């Protein structure tokens, strides 16, 4: 509303607005036809458009015949797809609004980010745990379960907890299915629902094979560090703990996923792991950049084994180790060690990847 103060807005979370357009989607066209014509009309904003898939045909017609522009917001494309709604092929550009990112927060606190997460209300709240519990209970376990069209809500709730405990790990559908008491195909469909509703995404394995035999199964990451803690019922993430290292890795990936989209560079992100257990957290592009994340404040040779193994097979790759070291340095064989804050500053200033 700040960018488009004159825009007409339909909020489908409002029951009267929802019922009016649900009963007669053509009212959208009639409303806009009644407005005075002008050379450049402000866009029409429709929030939660997936609640009335039939509106998409009216929007299509208005784009084609009146030159109207629309900003369509929603939390899930799944309902539109399920109802075979008009998806405006070739007429719409898709953007994903992610949780807050490092440059958006003055006086950024890593401790707060790893414990509260980066949803705006959670990060800024003095006691975010209660908000996270509410989000997990009211949204994930009810609304997302409704997306699953399942009557077995307890199994879906259990799946969410198991998936959170597996966050950042290689996904084994059969093992998760056994833990949840459902079939492996059902677990796959549950993961698809999480992806369609932007609750998480798969991180593929880097597939460019060289000498070593590679692991090909994907990992899965939820969209927010705090939400994972809430689902997995973890306590406070303390520096020096194993949880802190996993949370830091997750946080760095969320920054990379936001950056690849917001910068419109759209570079692919994958992880690399060999059958002999060498691993690098993130590979960007076609092996241009390998990134390992360690929570240590004093990185040593043992932390660089994965990067050095990757460098043996991809000699042109730039290798960066993100850590809590107090200052940047470079090893004799070219591994760049960057404090996490310097890495993120460089990332968002387009100095890491262009």
Protein architecture, described:
This protein is of the alpha/beta class and 354 residues long. The chain has 2 domains: 74 residues, no CATH class; 247 residues, Orthogonal Bundle (Arc Repressor Mutant, subunit A). The protein contains 14 helices and 11 strands. Strands 6-7-8-9-11-10 form a 6-stranded mixed sheet, sandwiched between helices. It has a 3-stranded parallel sheet with strand order 1-2-3, with no helix packed on it. Strands 4-5 form a two-stranded antiparallel ribbon. Strand 8, helix 13 and strand 9 form a beta-alpha-beta unit. Helix 7 packs across helix 8, helix 7 crosses helix 11 and helix 9 packs across helix 10. The chain is globular and about 70 Å long. The two termini are 32 Å apart. The mean pLDDT is 89.
List the helices and strands and how they pair.
Elements: E1 9-11, H1 15-23, H2 26-33, E2 44-47, H3 55-66, E3 70-72, H4 78-82, H5 110-116, H6 120-123, H7 128-147, H8 153-165, H9 173-180, H10 184-196, E4 200-203, E5 219-222, H11 225-232, H12 242-262, E6 269-273, E7 279-284, E8 289-293, H13 305-313, E9 318-323, E10 329-330, E11 336-339, H14 340-348
Parallel strand pairs: 1-2, 2-3, 8-9, 9-11
Antiparallel strand pairs: 4-5, 6-7, 7-8, 10-11
């Amino acid at each position: 509303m700040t960018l488009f103060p004159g825009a007409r807005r339909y909020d489908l979370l409002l029951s009267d607005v929802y019922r009016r357009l649900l009963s007669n989607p053509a009212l959208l066209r009639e409303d806009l036809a009644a407005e005075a014509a002008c050379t450049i009309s402000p866009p029409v904003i429709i929030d939660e458009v997936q609640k009335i898939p039939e509106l998409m045909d009216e929007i299509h017609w208005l784009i084609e015949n009146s030159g109207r522009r629309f900003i369509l917001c929603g939390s899930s494309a799944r309902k539109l797809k399920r109802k075979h709604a008009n998806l405006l092929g070739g007429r719409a550009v898709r953007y994903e609004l992610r949780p807050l990112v490092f440059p958006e927060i003055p006086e950024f606190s890593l401790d707060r980010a790893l414990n509260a997460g980066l949803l705006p209300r959670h990060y800024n709240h003095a006691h975010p745990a209660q908000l996270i519990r509410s989000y997990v209970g009211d949204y994930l376990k009810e609304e997302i379960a409704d997306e699953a069209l399942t009557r077995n809500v307890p199994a879906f709730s259990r799946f969410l907890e198991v998936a959170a405990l597996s966050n950042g790990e290689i996904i084994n559908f059969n093992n998760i299915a056994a833990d949840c008491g459902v079939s492996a195909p059902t677990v796959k469909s549950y993961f698809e629902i999480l992806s369609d509703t932007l609750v998480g995404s798969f991180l593929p394995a880097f597939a460019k094979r060289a000498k070593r035999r590679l692991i090909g199964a994907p990992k899965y990451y939820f969209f927010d560090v705090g939400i994972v803690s809430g689902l997995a019922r973890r306590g406070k993430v303390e520096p020096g703990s194993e949880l802190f290292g996993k949370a830091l890795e997750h946080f760095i990936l969320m920054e990379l996923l936001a950056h690849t989209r917001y910068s419109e560079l759209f570079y692919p992100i994958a992880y690399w792991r060999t059958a002999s257990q060498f691993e690098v957290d993130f590979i960007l592009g076609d092996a241009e950049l390998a990134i390992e994340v360690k929570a240590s404040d004093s990185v040593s040779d043992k932390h660089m084994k994965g990067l050095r193994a990757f460098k043996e097979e991809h000699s042109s790759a730039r290798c960066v180790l993100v850590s809590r070291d107090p200052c940047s340095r470079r090893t004799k064989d070219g591994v760049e060690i960057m404090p996490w804050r310097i890495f993120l500053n460089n990332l968002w200033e387009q100095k890491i990847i262009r």
